[in-house]
Write a structure and sequence with these properties.
Length: about 600
């Protein structure tokens, strides 16, 4: 375009400085060219720019001029090629501010913040530098008069470096966003298999440039024969249908060796067209991921993959912990189910046992009722004949004393037997009343010595070969007791002493006073009672090992204890096996 204020023209704009600028390299670069958008309404500016940049290269790549003769034409170019890194933009074209309007279009309407925009004007007064720098988002301001070949190259290189750094930053930002968006759904995956399959999909997105990468996930597994191999657990692309196969059957020898080496060294391996990543966990072992794609992996992508691995590694541990929790929960559910079944079985058994106990209790109550009826019948039916026998024996004794004295001894035996039989009936009736709490004491003043003598007298007659020694002088003369019941107590104790001691062995009855208590002891020198049986001796129906062959019902001592307790007293026993026993009754007087 025409110069101003001194006739500056574009020929001078691109004249060389002191010392000619030569090509950066004698050998033509072979890389893809750097596209430079030149927006100017003067075709000669485009031609001179192309000539000047023809002999320059940067980072092994030449320059390529993309021309636009107006702002509108530049908009069309940018619509087709939004990735242009740098633009040399004239201010005055179809209008005096067409270049500045194009700057706002690029920054605000297209949202392109990466492109480096260098204003290059031949009329600085039309767009003052201070106003333009402050009011517009441009990166440099050059007058055509000062933009020599060397400065043009320097300006372009600075702009390209800035553009490359911005692109790298944006890629890293996008990579971080992809890491966050890819890892977030992974932490929601619970089963390990689903987690690995989803991880294969997400890891490809981290470095996805629009291509379709192939991803392989593999782990060491145990074979049925006991050996170990590296098998595919998930795949993407060409490996999507290879799950379960051995890596050696899918990859080449070199690729298989890379996987094995990564597994051994626990380190990631990076190459231009592939990456081998290692995911380590404390509980789940090691999983290897192999990524392949046509485009080379950059150092920034290596760092992104490292970051992704570190972030997702905790996901493996979480999934492992989740699987352990699921297993424990399943085990707990099984135990609860087993315990529930066991409790149900126990409950059923308890119900059956309860029914059996209820039936047994019903039978026992029925038996007790029948026993009461039987005892009532026996008491009624036996007492009358026994009374008749006793009366007849008394009459016979009165006559025999005058006519046949030798018959007195036999009649005494008959009367003693009647009394023992009557006592047996009384004992059972007393026990029955004790069990039903129907027994009522009929206390009266009793001479204990006379009571004991009356109890022993029938035994003397019935057992003339036994010696009954009595030392009763220490007893109180009077005691408030039920004579019939205490007589039953003494009868039981003397009867036991007779049954469990041998012929000719003496039975000793001793009476004494201990404060307000009367103490009566019945001692025999018989077989004695084993010590382990002493605690159960007064249990109802209990008969010890020494009772074998000796008639009895097992209720005598129980009845003794109950009657003594009703009187407010106590009963105890001292026994030595093979030497005899002493039963001690203590009664309040």
């Amino acid at each position: 375009m025409a110069g101003m204020d001194g006739g500056l023209d574009d020929e001078l704009l691109f004249g060389p400085e002191d010392g000619a600028v030569t090509a950066a390299s004698s050998q033509r670069p072979s890389g893809a060219p750097w596209p430079v958008l030149v927006v100017d309404d003067d075709p000669q500016v485009h031609a001179m720019t192309a000539v000047l940049l023809r002999d320059f290269d940067f980072d092994g790549r030449p320059f390529e001029v993309v021309s636009a003769l107006s702002a509108e034409e530049a908009k069309a170019v940018l619509a087709q090629r939004p990735d242009l890194p740098i633009a040399l933009l004239d201010v005055v074209m179809e209008t005096e501010d067409a270049g500045l309007k194009l700057v706002r279009h690029i920054r605000e309407e297209l949202g392109n913040r990466r492109m480096r925009i260098i204003l290059r004007t031949g009329q600085p007064g039309q767009a003052p530098e201070r106003d333009v720098i402050v009011g517009y988002d441009i990166n440099d301001y050059k007058a055509k008069s000062e933009l020599t070949a060397q400065r043009l190259f320097t300006t372009l290189v600075s702009g390209l470096r800035a553009w490359r750094d911005i692109v790298a930053i944006e890629r890293n930002r996008q990579g971080l966003e992809r890491i966050l968006s890819a890892s977030a759904p992974l932490f929601e995956m619970r089963p390990m298999r689903a987690f690995v399959e989803r991880l294969v999909e997400q890891i490809a997105r981290v470095v996805d440039h629009g291509s379709a990468p192939a991803v392989l996930a593999c782990r060491p597994v145990d074979r049925a024969d006991g050996s170990r191999t590296i098998a595919v657990v998930a795949g993407l692309g060409v490996y999507s249908g290879r799950i379960g196969l051995a890596v050696a059957d899918i990859l080449s020898v070199g690729a298989t060796a890379e996987v094995a080496d990564a597994l051994l060294t626990q380190r990631n391996l990076y190459h231009d067209d592939r990456c081998v990543l290692v995911f380590r966990t404390r509980e789940h072992g090691v999983t290897i991921f192999r990524l392949e794609r046509a485009e080379p992996y950059t150092a920034d992508e290596h760092r992104l993959l490292e970051l992704f691995c570190n972030r997702v590694a905790i996901g493996f541990d979480n999934v492992c912990l989740y699987e352990e929790l699921v297993a424990l929960n399943h085990s707990l559910e099984q135990r609860v189910e087993e315990r529930t079944l066991e409790l149900a079985a126990n409950q059923k058994a308890l119900i059956l046992a309860k029914e059996r106990v209820e039936r047994a209790l019903e039978r026992e109550l029925l038996a007790r009722d029948r026993q009461r009826q039987f005892l009532g019948m026996v008491s009624h039916e036996f007492r009358t004949p026994l009374a008749i026998i006793d009366s007849a024996a008394q009459l016979l004794a009165m006559r025999a004393g005058q006519v046949e004295p030798e018959m007195l001894e036999r009649l005494a035996v008959i009367r003693g037997s009647v009394q023992r039989l009557t006592g047996l009936i009384d004992a059972h009736l007393t026990d029955e009343r004790l069990q039903t709490n129907a027994l009522v004491l009929e206390r009266a003043e009793v001479d204990l010595a006379d009571l004991i003598d009356n109890v022993v007298r029938p035994f003397r007659v019935a057992y003339p070969d036994r010696e009954f020694r009595m030392t009763l002088a220490g007893l109180p003369r009077r005691a408030e007791v039920d004579a019939n019941l205490i007589g039953l107590v003494l009868n039981n104790l003397v009867n036991n002493a007779v049954k469990y001691s041998g012929l000719g062995e003496a039975i000793h009855l001793h009476g004494d006073t201990d404060g307000a208590m009367a103490v009566i002891e019945v001692t025999d020198h018989g077989r004695g009672i084993p010590e382990p049986e002493l605690p159960r001796l007064f249990d109802r129906f209990f008969r010890g090992s020494g009772a074998s062959g000796v008639p009895g019902t097992g209720i005598g001592l129980h009845t003794v204890q109950q009657i003594v307790h009703l009187h407010g007293g106590a009963v105890a026993v001292d026994s030595t096996l093979g030497k005899g026993s002493t039963f001690r009754v203590v009664l309040p007087v």
